[in-house]
Design brief:
- The structure is a single chain.
- The chain is mainly alpha-helical.
- It is 56% helix and 0% strand.
- The chain contains three helices and no strands.
- The protein has helices at residues 8-12, 15-26, 29-40.
- The longest helix has 12 residues, at 15-26.
- It is flat and about 30 Å long.
Amino acid sequence: MGEVDQPAEQLCANKDAIVMYGEFASAKPSELAQVTDEMLARPGPPEWGTCL
């Protein structure tokens, strides 16, 4: 999605990110909770990008 050396403004203006945030905004809270629980149930600690 982006490079670690990119400023946050560029990362957050990324077309993919805009679509992703739009999907988050239209999701039901129960759907977001389920997806979050599934991601956090994966082995090991969450990594950068896991929740993006």
